Amino acid sequence: MIRRWIEEMASVLAENRACLSELDSPIGDADHGNNMERGFRAVLATLPETEDIGALLKGVAMTLISRVGGAAGPLYGTFFLEAGKPLAGKTELTPEDVVQLFENGVTGIRKRGRSDTGMKTMLDALVPAADALRSTLAEGGDLAAALKAATDAAEAGMKGTIPMLAQRGRASYLGERSVGHQDPGATSSYLIVRALGDAVEGISR
Amino acid sequence: MIRRWIEEMASVLAENRACLSELDSPIGDADHGNNMERGFRAVLATLPETEDIGALLKGVAMTLISRVGGAAGPLYGTFFLEAGKPLAGKTELTPEDVVQLFENGVTGIRKRGRSDTGMKTMLDALVPAADALRSTLAEGGDLAAALKAATDAAEAGMKGTIPMLAQRGRASYLGERSVGHQDPGATSSYLIVRALGDAVEGISR
Amino acid sequence: MKKLIDNADDVTLEQLKGFGLAHDTVEVHFDPNFICLAGGVEGRVAVISGGGSGHEPLHGGYVGMGMLDAACPGQVFTSPTPDQMYEAGKAVNGGKGILQIVKNYTGDVLNFQMAADLLRAEGIEVRNIIIDDDVALQDSLYTAGRRGLGTTVIAEKVCGAASREGYDLDRLAALCRKVNIHGKSMGMALTSCMTPQNGTPSFELGEDEMEIGIGIHGEPGIERMPIKSATEVTSMLARRILEDGAYTRTLSEWDSEKEDWVDVEIQDITFQQGDEVIAIVNSMGGTPISELYTVYAALAEQAEQHGVKIVRRLIGHYITSLEMAGVSITLVKADEEILHFYDAPVNTPALRWGA
Amino acid sequence: MKKLIDNADDVTLEQLKGFGLAHDTVEVHFDPNFICLAGGVEGRVAVISGGGSGHEPLHGGYVGMGMLDAACPGQVFTSPTPDQMYEAGKAVNGGKGILQIVKNYTGDVLNFQMAADLLRAEGIEVRNIIIDDDVALQDSLYTAGRRGLGTTVIAEKVCGAASREGYDLDRLAALCRKVNIHGKSMGMALTSCMTPQNGTPSFELGEDEMEIGIGIHGEPGIERMPIKSATEVTSMLARRILEDGAYTRTLSEWDSEKEDWVDVEIQDITFQQGDEVIAIVNSMGGTPISELYTVYAALAEQAEQHGVKIVRRLIGHYITSLEMAGVSITLVKADEEILHFYDAPVNTPALRWGA
Ligand SMILES: Nc1ncnc2c1ncn2[C@@H]1O[C@H](COP(=O)(O)OP(=O)(O)O)[C@@H](O)[C@H]1O
Ligand SMILES: Nc1ncnc2c1ncn2[C@@H]1O[C@H](COP(=O)(O)OP(=O)(O)O)[C@@H](O)[C@H]1O
Ligand SMILES: [Mg+2]
Ligand SMILES: [Mg+2]
Ligand SMILES: [Mg+2]
Ligand SMILES: [Mg+2]
After folding, report:
1. Is D93 exposed, middle or buried (0-12, 13-18, 19+ CB in 10 A)?
2. Does residue C39 carry a pLDDT above 90?
3. Which residue ranges run through the membrane (chains A, B) (predicted)?
4. What is the tens place of the pLDDT at every residue in A48-87?
C-alpha cells in the first residue's frame, strides 16, 4: 500500500507540476510544482527494495530532503521522517497506523515550520485531513471511508486557503496581496492525501 | 541670406529629427536626427552677431564639430568650415560664391571621410546638388533656378541611395543588408540644400 | 526563451562547470554541488553561505581569500539542500567551527538548520546567522519576517576577513549578527524575470509600471505603481531605509547549552545623524551599470539630507534576480570593526581589492 | 520606457555626475565632458580613450591607476566631440605625449583625428591607434572596416600599464597596434536595445530569433537566425574568431615626418596551435553573469580543440550595449610583453587587481 501510495504521489505530482508552479507564481516564486516533481522523481529512482514501511517512509524523507530544497523540501521531508518513525519494521498498516502516520507528520511540520493552521500553508490541508481520518474511524467507518473523508477535508482546507492572509513562507511577504490565491503547498498536500485514497482503492479493487 | 539659411536648416532638421533617426535605425544606430537637431539647436544658440559670411559659416562649423559627434559632426563641420574659408569678410554672396561654397564643402567631406559618390552617404545628395548649381548657372539660370535644380538633384541623389550598397559609415557593416534603405545622411543633406532654396525664396518674396 | 543556456532543466550544473573551469582559485564539487576555496581552511572558522541560484555573483562569486570558504548553490530560486552544506562543511572544516550565513527565506532557514544538525552530529560546531534586512516588509509578527538582501554581501565580506584575523566562532557569529542589524535594504523592479524551468515571466508588469519592494526570486513586491524618474525611485527606497524604525523580530539560533534551536529576539539599529555607512547600489540583473549612477547620485543626496555619510560603496551587479531590470539599495552602518574588515584584502571572482 | 533615468535628453550628464560622486580616484569634468585620473600624469605618456556612452563600464570605468588616464564619453551611442579629447588631453598631458585608443567607427575615428590635430597645434605629440577587431565583418576594401570591440579593454589595460613602466609614445603606440592585431572579437544579441532619446528598440527580433555579428550600438548584425543553445552559439562565434584569416586593412595613422595622416597597411595575426590567449566573455548588458559561464565552458572547449590555451579571462560586463541581452567573445593572443602588462596592478572602478 505504501509503495503504491508513493508511486501514486509521484505520478499525480508530475501531472500537476505546471499547475502547482503556476499557483506558486502570484504568491511565491513559481517553483513548487518543479520542486515536488523533481523530488518524487528522485524518490521513485531511489526507493529501497524493502517492505519495511518505516524504511520506505524514511527513504522518501531523505530523498525529499536532499532533492527538493526550498521550504517544501525540509517540510515534507520532516513529514515523512516523523510519519515513518513509529512504523519501523512494520510491513502492514492498521487504520490506526494511518491516523498516527498523519498526526506525527503534521506535528513534525508544525515544529519545523513554526506554523499552524490558518497561516495559508500545507497544514491547512493536512490538519483537517488528519482530523477527518481520526473521526471517521472513531465513528466506525473503514479505512476507505476515512480516506475519502480525509480527501474531502483536505480539498476543503485547500480551498479554504484562498481567502487567507499568508503568515508563513514567501507568500507572507505579500501581506494583503496574498489574499485571493490558493496556496500551492496546501494543493500538493491535498494531492498527497488523495493519492493515498486512490492507492488504497486501487488495491482493494 | 546665410543667417536665413541657418535658421531654415535648424527648423527643418528639428522637424525631421524623428524621421532622420528612424532612417538611421535599419542601417545605423538610430541617432542621426537627434545628432543633427542637437547640433543645429546649439548653432542657433551660439550664432555670432556678425554679417561676415565666412565668420558665420565658421561658427556653424565649430558648433557642429563640438556638439554633434558621430560621423555627421566632423563631416558637416568640415563642410561648413571649408565652405566658409573663401568667404571670410564677405557680407554678400554672388551666385558663383554659392557654387564655390558647395564645391569647397564637398571637397572637405571627400577628404575627411575618404569617401565619394556611390558609397551611400551624404555625398550622394551633395555632389549632384553642387553639380546642378554650377550647370544651371552656366546655362544662364538665376540663383533661384539653380537652387531649385540643386534641390531636385539632391532629392534624386538621396533617393538614389536606396538601392546602393553602403561602403562607408555604420551602414557598411551590413553589407547586402544595407540595400533597400535610404541613407540618413543623404537625407539631411537634401534638407540642407532645400533649406537654402527656401531661404533665398523667402528673401526674394 | 531568450537565454544563453543549454539545458533548461539543469542550468545550475552547466553554469557551475563553467565557473569551475574559469576560476582556479576555487574548486567546484558536484553531487552534491558546492564551491569551495582551493587549498582548504586550517585553524580558523570556516564561513559558508548559499541559497538558490539566479542571484549571481552571490554566493559562488564571493568564494575566495578573505570572503567565503564555501558556497552552496541550489536550483534556480530554490534553496540548497542540507546534504550540500553538510559536504561543503566537511570539506572546509578547519577544526574551529563553521559560520553559516543564511538569508531569511523559509526554505533557506530550514535547509541550513537541517545541515547544521547534520554537521553537529559529526562533532562540528555550527552557528547559523540569519540576514533579514529588507525594509519593504514592515511586520514581523504575522509573516516569515524580512527577507535577506544586499547586507548578505557585506556580511560575507566582513566575516570572511574576520575569520582570517582569528575571530573564534562565537565572536564571528556576533559580528555577523551585528552586520545584519546594521544593514537595511530595499529593491524595485522595472521588469519581471523568468526561470529557465518555467519559461514565463514570474509576474506581469505593464509598460508604464514598476514594482516596489521586491525580493530576489521574481516574487511580486509590496506595491505596484507608475514608473517614476530614477531620482524619485531612489528617494522612495532611500527614505524608507534611512527612516526605518528599530525593527524587532524573533529568529531561531542554536543554543549550545540547551542543545536546541531557541528563539532569540533581535533588534535593528536605526540610522542617526553622523552615521557612516557602506552603500550598495545593486543592479537586479538587466539594469545596465550606467543607470546605477543616477541612482547613486540621488542616494548620496538623500543620505546627506539625513546627515548620513557614505564612506564606501559598491555599484554594480552583486545580488541579482536573473535578468530582472531594477535596482536595490543597501546601507550598512559601519563602525570601526566593520570598516576594518570591509577594507581588508579580498580576492574572489566577483570582489577583489588589496590582492 | 523601462529605464532608471531622470532626463532622457541628457542621461550622460546625470550618470557622469553620479560617477564623479561615487569614485574618488577619478575627476569628472563637464562641458566638455571627460573623466580623468585624480592627481594627474607626470613624466609619462598619457593614455586616453573614449567613445559613445552606453557601453559602460567602457571607457570611464577603466580610468585609474594602471589603465586609462582619461576617458571622453559622447552622447549615448554617439562618438565624443574633438573639444572633449582636446580638454582631456591638456588636463592629463605629462609632457611625454598622448596615446589615443580609438574604436574603429567612422565617427570616433574622425573626431579623434580632429582632436589630435587640435592637440598637436598646442605642441603635444599624439598618436591615434585604431582598434578594429570584429571578425563578423570580413571585407575591408568596400566598407568602413571592422568595428572595435572587446580588444579595446585589453589594449587599455596593457597600454596603461606600459605607460607606467616608462614606454615612450612610439613604443606605446607600437604595443597598442600589436594588441589590436593580436585581438579578435565577435558578438551576438538575443534582444535589441533602446537609447533613452529614441525610446524604441533599435531593431526588432522575434521571440525565437537571435542576431549574430552585432556591434555595440544596437545596429543589426550580419545574420539573423533561430535561437540556438549557448554551446552552439559559442561554437559559432569562437570558431569564426579562431579560424579568422590574416585580415589586412588600411588605417589612417599620423606620420610625424610627413606631418600628415597617412594610410598604413596592417595585418592581423592568425591563431596557431600552442598560442596562449586572454579571453573575454562579455555580457552585452542584459545577459546575467550566470549565463556567461555556460558560454565560457563552450569557449574553453573550442579553444582546446584548436590547440589554443586560455591563460587569463574576464567574465562579466566589460563593453556593453545598454540593456541588450547577448554576449561577445574576445580572444587576444598573449605574448610575454602583453601578459606582463596585463598582470600588472590596476585600480579602476571596473577593473582591479594587485592593488
Ligand atoms: N513555515 C511553514 N510551515 C508550513 N508550510 C510552509 C511554511 N512555509 C512555507 N510553507 C509551504 O511551502 C509552500 C511553498 O513551497 P515551495 O514553493 O516548494 O518552496 P519555496 O517557497 O521555498 O519556493 C507554501 O505554499 C506553503 O504551503
Ligand atoms: N566616410 C563618410 N563619408 C561621408 N559620409 C559619411 C561617411 N560615413 C558616414 N557618413 C554619413 O554619415 C551618416 C551617419 O551620421 P550619424 O548617424 O549622425 O553618425 P553615426 O553613424 O556616427 O551615428 C550616414 O548616413 C552617411 O551619410
Ligand atoms: Mg516556491
Ligand atoms: Mg547614426
Ligand atoms: Mg523556491
Ligand atoms: Mg551614432
Report:
1. buried
2. no
3. none
4. 999 999 999 999 999 999 999 899 999 999 999 999 999 9
Q: Choose, from C23, C217, C306, C317, the residue flagged as catalytic.
A: C217
Place C201 in a pLDDT band, splitting at 50, 70 and 90: confident
Residues C220, A177: C-beta atoms closer than 8 Å: yes
- Cβ–ligand 2 contact at B32 (below 6 Å): yes
Q: Which amino acid is at D310?
A: I
Q: Compute the half-sphere exposure of residue D270: CA atoms within 13 Å on the CB side of its CA.
A: 11
Three-state DSSP string of chain C: CCCCCCCHHHHHHHHHHHHHHHCCCEEEECCCCEEEECCCCCCCCEEEEEEEECCCCCCHHHECECCECEEEEEEECCCCCHHHHHHHHHHHCCCCCEEEEEECCHHHHHHHHHHHHHHHHCCCCEEEEEECCECCCCCCCCCCCCCCCCHHHHHHHHHHHHHHCCCCHHHHHHHHHHHHHHEEEEEEECCCCCCCCCCCCCCCCCCCEEEECCCCCCCCCCEEEECCCHHHHHHHHHHHHHCCCCCEEEEEEEECCCCEEEEEEEECCCCCCCCEEEEEEEECCCCCHHHHHHHHHHHHHHHHHCCCEEEEEEEECCCCCCCCCEEEEEEEECCHHHHHHHHCCEECCCCEECC
Distance between Cα B182 and ligand 6 center (Å)? 17
| Residue bearing the bigger pLDDT, C221 or A43 | A43
pLDDT, tens digit, 9 for 90 and up, residues B107-164: 999 999 999 999 999 999 999 999 999 999 999 999 999 999 999 999 999 999 999 9
Share of chain B above pLDDT 70, in %: 99
- Domains delineated in chain D: 11-182+246-270+335-353 (3.40.50.10440), 186-242+272-333 (3.30.1180.20)
Residue predicted with more confidence, A28 or D68? D68
Q: What cell numbers appear for B11 in the block?
A: 527648423
Interatomic CA distance for residues B46 and B6, integer angstroms = 12
Domain spans in chain B, listed from the N-terminal domain onward: 2-204
**For chain B, which ranges sit under pLDDT 50?**
none
Dist. CA A183 → ligand 4 center (Å): 52
Instruction: Locate D92 and state its grid cell.
Output: 592629463
Per-residue pLDDT, averaged over C61-67, amounts to 98
How far, in Å, are A104, B107, D296 from residue A138 at the CA level? 18, 104, 64
Using alpha carbons, select from D332, D99, D131 the residue that is nearest to residue D216.
D131
Torsion C74-C216-C158-C126 (CA) sign: negative
Q: Is C217 a catalytic residue?
A: yes
CATH fold of B2-204, please? 1.25.40
Q: CA of A134 to nearest chain C CA: how many angstroms apart? A: 29
Count CA atoms within 13 Å of residue D112 on its CB side: 32
- Residue D206, Cβ density class (10 Å: 0-12 exposed, 13-18 middle, ≥19 buried): exposed
pTM: 0.93
Mean pLDDT of C208-220: 91
- Of all ligands present, the nearest one to the C-alpha of A123 is 1
Examine the pLDDT at A199 and tell me if it is beyond 70.
Answer: yes
Searching chain B, which residue's CA lies closest to the CA of residue D193? Answer: B29
pLDDT 10s digits, A98-134 = 999 999 999 999 999 999 999 999 999 999 999 999 9
Long-range contact set of residues B97-100: C-beta below 8 Å, sequence gap at least 24:
B98/B133, B98/B143, B98/B146, B98/B147, B98/B196, B99/B130, B99/B133, B99/B134, B99/B137, B99/B146
Identify the residue whose C-alpha is closest to ligand 2 atom 16: B32
Q: What is the ipTM of this complex?
A: 0.91
How far is C234 from chain D, CA to nearest CA, in Å?
A: 9
Which residues of chain D have a pLDDT value below 50?
A: none
Tell me if B106 sits within 8 A of B130, measured CB to CB.
yes
